[in-house]
Amino acid sequence: MNPRLRQLLLSLGRVAISAGLLAFIVYYVGPGKIFAVARAADLRLYLLAITLVQIGVVVRAYRWLILLRAVGARVSFRRAVYLYFIGSFFNTFLPTGFGGDVVRVIAVGQGATSEQAAGTAVVDRLTGFIVLFLLALVALPFSARLLTPRLTLLVVVLAGGVVAGSALLFEGRILRWIIRRVAQLPILAGHPRLNRIYGAVMAWIEKSYGVITACGPRALAGAMFFSLIFNLLQVGANSLVGTALGITASPWVYFLFIPVAAATLLVPATISGFGAREAVYILLFGQVHVGSDLATTFSLSSYFLDFASGVLGGIIYLVSGLLGFRPQQKATEA
User: Are 275 and 25 in contact (CB under 8 A)?
Assistant: First the structure.
């Protein structure tokens, strides 16, 4: 089969799965109940949440800039912010939650090589995920009593797995030893396809570790710090959304629920976690006695926080193109 046709069919399949899941959940909950919750929302709090998310985009841009400059790239702060908003636009409207990262790498322009942009984009994402799940582990002692033991275990396993896996990647030597041991397994010897997959994964890890090493501990520490600020803004924005909708759950639960819901971005069968994310929020909020109508409306409202960033990014991209002042990175720009 033609690779482009295959990719198109896979994308259409993912759209169909997400649309089907979302339609089922909306039908199960009741469209009238969802609209009623949305109509009663406090728009002032919701607008404040949108503002926090836009500030978060700027914080993420600065986090990426720290990593870019650590590997010798010469990209301005204004350019980094511009690229991050453009990336938000493509993340919103492409059938993946990571398409904007690819666009940032392609559009980085002079001042940074594609290898520098791609490698730092990976590290940029990793630092965000690490801090997000670390916050979940820190918040767990304060909110575990609100959850069932099974859900508490899920949070511990998921957060611990992400943090441990990221630590292995950052450390490098242990992960390389594990990879060499896996390569010796008999199952790989007789399966060329598994060998190709293994080779691709190993190449990605080697490339990522090379960039991590090039960034250095100081830049990584700076990226972690700004990841902390960004994730606190995200949790604060989502807490405001919950309050605006009338959810009375403890603010601590957002530190636990947001990382679990963020993991739905990694579900390859859906588009940006649509459908899966709503189901996860219904399950999670159900543990703290929040109804499925509130949980579904919260999930959709939370998505529209990022959608607002995407729309703003689209406006910036369109206007900069129409007026002819779309930023072009210069090699001499600091």
Answer: yes
> Hey, CA dihedral for 106, 111, 115, 116, is it positive or negative?
negative
> Tokens 């690779």 sit at which residue?
3
- 16: tokens are 């169909």
Please give the structure tokens belonging to residue 8: 């198109």
CA within 13 Å, CB half, 88: 28
Which residue, 312, 309, 303, 298, is CA-closest to 254?
298
Residue 44 amino acid letter: R
Question: What does residue 246 show for φ and ψ, rounded to 5 degrees?
Answer: 95, 15
DSSP letter for each residue of 78-119: HHHHHHHHHHHHHHHHSSSSSHHHHHHHHH--TTS-HHHHHH
**Distance set, CA 76 to CA 61, 82, 332 (Å):** 10, 10, 10
Longest dimension (CA), the chain: 61
Q: What is the pTM of this model?
A: 0.81
Query: How many C-alpha atoms does 57 have within 13 Å on its Cβ side?
Result: 28
Using one digit for the tens of pLDDT, what is the confidence trace for 15-74?
A: 788 788 888 888 888 999 999 999 999 999 999 999 999 999 999 999 999 999 998 888
Q: Which residues contact 109 (CB under 8 A, 6 or more apart)?
A: 79, 327, 328, 329
